[in-house]
Specification:
296 residues, alpha/beta, Rossmann fold, 12 helices, 15% strand, globular, hydrolase activity, AB_hydrolase_fold, Pimeloyl-ACP methyl ester carboxylesterase
């Protein structure tokens, strides 16, 4: 079983397939490295593909110390995977919790990323909803501890941005929910309270986002409600970002619409690898609506 050890002595499990330019996939809270199977199979034809389980997700280690979990640590684990596999730079693709780690990589270690795919990022970001987000993170942790992983997963997998997947692809959704039920309740609870609950709002990162020049694709489902406005905000402030929205789709976009997701990534990687991914034209940022300003 392939593993590596981080600088704080936590063992991480990873999977690797293919040859070529590296692509690193970083999973969401409800997923694990298996969630990236449609991407691993597709992109390994041309790329070196890596997916790993976050700390708290067996067979990665489940640290007992809550201080071992944080947004900064989740981002550092992405770097640990790159370092452990001898990779200087990679295309980094993250969904939700993994999307936050990917975005923070772009802020703290942009030299390690060829590009950033930031998908499903925005939960709890809006300031007027932060108190509710933190309360729900606490409630999730409490339910994980009291009811266990299987009961929690069945409810969580039917949330308002998951039912789209259930309605569209019942067999795929069932596999997703069953895999989530196999996760560690302890690791998931600690992640809810130490990572999800405590991470900074996207809106508090504005200064760093405005300075970001690493090629960035923001990719959301149009019914992934908590990510809609944060996605538009990131598009507006990150000069290297483009925003793509997948219609009729919820949070689990890479599993719900794998063909559309893969096509979007394929075109993005091709532009980046060719050195053709543009920064936004400064003329596109203006207080004017049409460019024709009224005279005083």
């Amino acid at each position: 079983m392939p593993t590596l050890t981080t600088d704080d002595a936590v063992t991480l499990y990873y999977e690797e397939v293919g040859q070529g330019t590296p692509v690193l996939f970083v999973h969401e809270f409800a997923g694990d490295c298996r969630s990236w199977e449609p991407q691993m199979r597709y992109f390994s034809r041309r790329y070196r593909c890596i997916a790993f389980n976050a700390r708290g997700w067996p067979p990665s280690e489940v640290p007992e110390d809550p201080a071992k979990y944080s947004q900064a640590r989740a981002t550092a684990d992405v770097v640990a995977i790159l370092d452990g596999l001898g990779i200087d730079r990679a295309h980094v693709v993250g969904l939700s919790m993994g999307g936050y780690a990917t975005l923070h990589l772009g802020l703290t270690a942009p030299e390690r990323a060829l590009s950033l795919v930031v998908s499903g990022v925005g939960y709890g970001a809006e300031r007027e909803r932060q108190a509710l987000w933190r309360a729900e993170a606490d409630a999730s942790a409490n339910r994980l501890r009291s009811a266990g992983m299987k009961a929690f997963a069945e409810d969580y997998a039917q949330g308002p941005t998951r039912v789209q997947f259930q309605n569209k692809d019942p067999r795929g959704w069932r596999e997703f929910a069953d895999r989530m039920a196999e996760h560690s309740a302890a690791g998931s609870a600690r992640t809810q309270q130490q990572v999800q609950r405590e991470r900074p709002s996207i809106y508090d990162l504005e200064d760093g986002l405005r300075a970001m020049t690493t090629p960035c694709l923001i990719l959301n489902g149009d019914e992934d409600w908590p990510c809609s406005l944060p996605g538009v905000f990131m598009k507006a402030v990150v000069p290297s970002a483009q925003l793509q929205v997948v219609p009729g789709t919820g949070h689990t976009v890479n599993l719900e619409e794998p063909d559309l997701f893969n096509t979007a990534l394929e075109k993005f990687f091709a532009q980046v690898d060719a050195g053709r991914w543009p920064l936004r034209d400064p003329r596109a940022v203006s207080d004017s609506i049409t460019g024709v300003m009224p005279s005083n």
